[in-house]
Design a protein that fits this description.
The protein is of the alpha/beta class and 226 residues long. The chain is 43% helix and 19% strand. The protein has a seven-stranded mixed sheet with strand order 3-2-1-4-5-7-6, sandwiched between helices. The longest helix is centred in the N-terminal third of the chain and has 19 residues. The chain starts with 5 loop residues before the first helix and ends with a strand. Bound molecules: S-adenosylmethionine (SAM). One of its GO terms (molecular function) is O-methyltransferase activity. InterPro entries: SAM-dependent_MTases_sf, SAM_O-MeTrfase.
């Protein structure tokens, strides 16, 4: 029996589920044509200018379910691309606000203007349940995340690995106790993540860490400062 989809359990509208299915298919289709060398740090920016590289559906559903479990209402996403994972995050925030009140936000980040523009059209297609929740910060996240963040419940690191630790350092002062940090591909890209993983796993870092057995590894860290 296949795993149930938590979005269906939360009655996410059919047109959004259909859009997600289409976008994931496009992303996986593109990725099938990308060689390992194309992800090299020296060429990744130019090679991935027009590539989704969306978080896989099972990971997106996990992050959705996690965001629901911790009642996340303020989420930062490092690496938005065409906004696929952002849709899941926004839907989770919207569901949390419906369930327990208040307002919420997903802060997305993307430095490719073309991707940002297209992402906005997908969120528009989803409707207000998504587009009203997302604030997209365009440009280099090392600048755009420097100011104006509220208390963060969840940080998704789905970004080129050299950006991961600088992002965490920027966002960490805003993490609430119990906030969750998710980093993608921490087994597959372990070498690139070395600085991040050493930082988070160091004694006294304030994080407890667990590598989840998704494809290429998905690190789940909980901020538990003393
Ligand atoms: C793996 S993709 C994100 C995929 C997205 N989370 C999804 O699931 O649909 C990483 C994105 O980060 C963007 N990026 C890389 N470095 C960046 C930076 N310094 N500031 C903002 N965006 C950046 C890339 O352009 C790319 O689109």
């Amino acid at each position: 029996m296949s795993s149930p989809n938590p979005l269906e359990g939360d009655n996410v509208p059919q047109h959004i589920l259909a859009l997600l299915t289409r976008l994931h298919a496009e992303s996986l289709n593109q990725e099938a044509g990308i060689a390992k060398a194309d992800y090299d740090a020296s060429v990744i920016h130019s090679n991935m200018k027009d590539k989704f590289i969306a978080l896989e559906p099972d990971k997106c559903q996990f992050v959705y379910q996690l965001a629901r479990a911790i009642n996340a209402k303020y989420i930062v996403e490092a690496g938005t691309s065409y906004g696929v994972s952002t849709i899941y995050l926004a839907l989770a925030v919207a569901a949390n606000c419906r369930a327990t009140g208040g307002v919420g936000k997903v802060v997305g980040t993307e430095h490719e203007a073309g991707k940002a523009e297209k992402a906005r059209t997908y969120w528009e297609e989803c409707g207000s349940i998504v587009k009203d929740i997302v604030e997209l910060r365009e440009g280099d996240l090392r600048k755009t995340l420097k100011e104006g963040l509220e208390t963060v419940d969840l940080l998704l690191l789905d970004i080129w690995t050299p950006m991961a630790l600088p992002t965490l350092e920027l966002v960490k002062p805003k993490l609430r106790p119990g906030a969750v940090v998710i980093a993608d591909n921490t087994i597959g890209s372990a070498a690139g993540y070395q600085d991040l993983l050493e930082y988070m796993r160091a004694p006294g870092s304030g994080f407890t860490n667990l590598t989840l057995p998704y494809n290429n590894g998905l690190e789940m860290s909980v901020y538990s400062p003393n």
